[in-house]
Amino acid sequence: MKVTRPVLRVAAVAVIGVAVAVSVTQVISGGRWDWWWLAAALVLAILAGVLDQLLKRSDGRDAGPRPVLWAALQDSDGKPRPLGDVTPRDLGVHPSRFGADGDCPYIPRAADALLDEALAVPSQRAIIVQRPRLAGTTRTLARAARHHLPGHRAAAFTDDPQIPLTDMITQAGQWAKDSDGPGAVLWLDAITPARLTSLAHALAGELPDRLRPVGGMYVMREQLNRLIEVARRPSIVVQVIPLGVGAHQGTSGNFVIADFGDGPSVAYQDTAVQGQVVDDAGDVKSLMVMWDTLKSEALARAASLELIEEVAKTWT
After folding, report:
1. Are strands 211-214 and 255-260 parallel, antiparallel or unpaired?
2. Minimal CA–CA distance to 252: which of 293, 282, 308?
3. What is the pLDDT of residues 148-172, one digit of tens each?
């Protein structure tokens, strides 16, 4: 489209130039003024100006921000390379100091079986993993994707808030369509979690052919159903903080508080590197205050369960 519009603009200018020249010739020929030729030339000039402005505005819209593919995933033509040709580090895995060139033997994790099951289904269009962000999460996703989808092109984009997630889906879908392989994978592991809420709307429609976002519905639906099952147990209380609350202290990380009848309370926090036990009385008290604050902002138990059940219905 970038080539077509300038060509149309030049053609429009050429046509109006010829029209004006012919009109002027007709007007002044023989010293006789043909007013209808002049009127026709003016109308054509106005139409050409309007067309030129419309094309300029259209070019301005198309010149907006576009999804930017990670440099490590680009081939010589600027298109994404197949997953089988990229390394875990190309997909965002941190290099390890315990292996040559930053690689180390993969340590199996509990999520492997779920990922293998989901990725092994050819008709599965989207794989969404929603769990606490622990060390090794990206490595686990990269292992599964490279093992099951080596021929799919890996499309991972810079997380630019000015670019809607739907634009990334469209671009990856075009690459999937043009690919001579089985398709493409839209790698969303590095996208800000808050932006993934728009993914539900994209998945509710039709995804581009041969595109598999990894980061479908099967895993999310099963996780929600499992959560519903657990939340119905009398010994467990699940409360959901609605999106309308906005930013809250719970977004700073996961933590667990353990109370002992004959001893002081302790806490446990997950970090990007490793878990951390918190036994300082002051720090534990701060976490308790945070816990009480989060409970006050969350929905009641019954309302939380109802919300989860409603959301689970959308992942079908």
Report:
1. unpaired
2. 293
3. 889 999 999 988 888 888 888 888 8
> What token pair was written down for 188?
């969303």
Comparing CA positions, the residue from 175, 105, 181 lying closest to residue 143 is: 105
Contact 96, 194 (CB under 8 A): no
- Which residues pair with residue 255 across a beta bridge? 269
DSSP secondary structure letter of residue 291: H
* Cβ neighbour number for residue 57 with a 10 Å cutoff: 10
- Evaluate if residue 115 carries a pLDDT over 60: yes
276 forms beta bridges with 269
For residue 302, what pLDDT band results from cuts at 50, 70 and 90? Answer: very high
Q: Is 184 exposed, middle or buried (0-12, 13-18, 19+ CB in 10 A)?
A: buried
Structure-block tokens of residue 298? 């969350």
Distance of alpha carbon 39 from alpha carbon 95, whole angstroms: 73
How far apart CA 245 and CA 255 sit, in angstroms, is 20
Paired sense of beta strands 263-270 and 275-278, if any: antiparallel
Residues 6+ apart with CB under 8 A from 233: none
The answer, yes or no, to whether residue 105 has pLDDT greater than 80, is: no
Global pTM reads: 0.48
Give the integer Cα–Cα distance in Å for 316 and 313.
Answer: 6
Place of tokens 């079986």: 113
Find the helix or strand (DSSP H, E) in which 269 lies: strand 263-270
**Mean pLDDT score of the chain, rounded to an integer?**
75
Question: Structure tokens of 25?
Answer: 């010739």
74 pLDDT higher than 90 = yes
Query: d(Cα 34, Cα 32) in Å, to the nearest integer?
Result: 6
Contact 188, 172 (CB under 8 A): no
Structure tokens at 22: 């012919």
